Amino acid sequence: MLRRCLMTGTALAFGFVLAISVCADVYELQRQPLDPFKPETSMGIHTMGQFPRAMLQPEESLSAEPKYQSEFPVYVVVTFGSGVDNKYTIVFDESRGTGTGYDTLYADRNNNGNLTDDPKIPMRLRQQDRLSGMIMWENFGHVEVLVKHGDKEVPYSFFVEFYRYSSQRMERTSPFAQNVSMRLQPGDFYTGTVSFNGSKLRIAVIDYNGNGLFNEYFKPRSDLMSPDGRIYAVGDQVAIDINGDGVFNEVYPCARYIQVNGKWYVLNISDDGGKVEVQTPQLDMGTIKVASAGCESLAVVSDNGVMNLSGKGQEFRVPVGTYQLYAYMSGEKSS
User: Fold this and answer.
1) Where does 72-151 show beta strands of DSSP type E?
2) Which listed residue, of 56, 273, 290, 333, carries a Cα 20 to 30 Å from 162's Cα?
3) What is the 3-state secondary structure (H, E, C) of 21-80?
4) In the chain, domain spans
5) Residue pLDDT, tens place only, 128-165
């Protein structure tokens, strides 16, 4: 752990800049495998991941490809990291021939456009939907690629859920694989012990949206909307083992500020998740008042991301700023 103090400027809502003293502790975090298909080993961590579109032709230029056994290899492009070229091609093949089921995965591990210098990855598990019997589900992983963050390159792993309608034959009627969908979930996270106001707690830095970045603020996206019109937020997460039982039982959206045991902190997480700086700033505070006496918790959103708030009664203390209501929890239900 590296500890340092610095001076910084914070712009308040009143339009002036106040110099405040900030103490910062820097911690190195360790990469740890995460298997979304073994809940007993997840320690309370859940992820959303990416939902790439399935294509019947490559979306980016490839210099070399293996000899596929399927007439219809399925291509997807996923994004990882913050490098100049952060698009990676993944291809699914049927090793026993067309119509036998997609059981082989090729991933451009080093992102050089050549799929012949990367190992092929066999299917891990195949299941059929028990209710309809029409959907086949194949699982692949761990799949590991090398992801760039500026001049730094680090390994990143993931799993793939591959869904297809077993009753429909693949046809080249469009560039899209019409009867195929998939979900990519992260296969690792970063963890370490961090001090919050003298309390040493284990934290987890989670790439919730599965794009190889671990420090994206949780923010609403208008293109992700539920049937009832509710907008969902997407980003990364920080989880804390508050009571030391080995489970990350407090989960926070990644944001500039988080509230731990009633005290506010600033977390600066590196792109690759391997380092976190914990600041204990002196913040100008304001109060959000709610009309419902039964409100137990509140989530608000600003340019600094979604923040979970805890308070007493109808008042919640927050750093000075401009916020919008994202969600709240009453004694009966969340909204």
Assistant:
1) 74-79, 87-93, 104-107, 120-122, 125-128, 135-149
2) 273
3) EEEEEEEECEEEECCCCCHHHCCCCCCCCECCCCECCCCCCCCECCCCCCCCCEEEEEEC
4) 2-31+188-330, 35-186
5) 766 565 677 889 989 999 999 988 899 999 999 999 88
